[in-house]
Amino acid sequence: MAKKRDNKQNNDFVSDGRDIEFSQELADQDDLEAQERAREADARAKKGNK
């Protein structure tokens, strides 16, 4: 029974398929620029899929 409960909890989380570890506190300027480029690329990809 506990397994069904755990499975339900996991269904509430929607993943984008990426497994990325990131620390905002340790980010340098290059990291921040890369994050912005990634957000822009994601937006373009989502817009193109509609």
From TrEMBL:
Biased segments, Basic and acidic residues type: 34-50
Domain of life: Bacteria
Region (Disordered): 1-50
Protein name: YfhD family protein
Protein species of origin: Anaerobacillus isosaccharinicus
